[in-house]
């Protein structure tokens, strides 16, 4: 009887485990758990150390730990490296907090928009869709082949390289370029 109970528990555990892990994605060498918030996951990604430092400098940690839901287009360290050499150190200075906050919140949209929802918006918009950012700006979502990309207000393009990294309080889509508001 005891062996049957253990076997039943093992079978149930095996059947549930793949579903529980199905939404857990690897980003920057770290598992992103759907049970954790955006900040608790992002701090573990080695590809997002610049973004995390910027979020801290802008005082947005508590906001992104909040209930949300948020859709965050999260630039990688390589995305920040594409900016002119002194841009990031300059933005991280306390006197530039307002500009840094504007740039970071330009990467955030209220609500939880999965890639399927973004695709649906693009199809409904005949090839493109506009998203209103928390900063008050507009991002345009478009598709090329099987990839989604964003166009910022200055015409810059950023590809979604990892989509649907679901969090307790939203979703992250990893992007390869920093998006710039007007």
TrEMBL record:
GO cellular component: extracellular space
UniProt domain FAS1: residue ranges: 35-179
Domain of life per record: Bacteria
Record keywords: Signal
SUPFAM superfamilies with a match to the protein in the record: FAS1 domain
Signal peptide (UniProt feature, chain positions): 1-22
PANTHER family referenced in this protein's UniProt entry, alphabetically: FI19380P1 (PTHR10900:SF77), PERIOSTIN-RELATED (PTHR10900)
Protein name: Uncaracterized surface protein containing fasciclin (FAS1) repeats
Organism: Mucilaginibacter gossypiicola
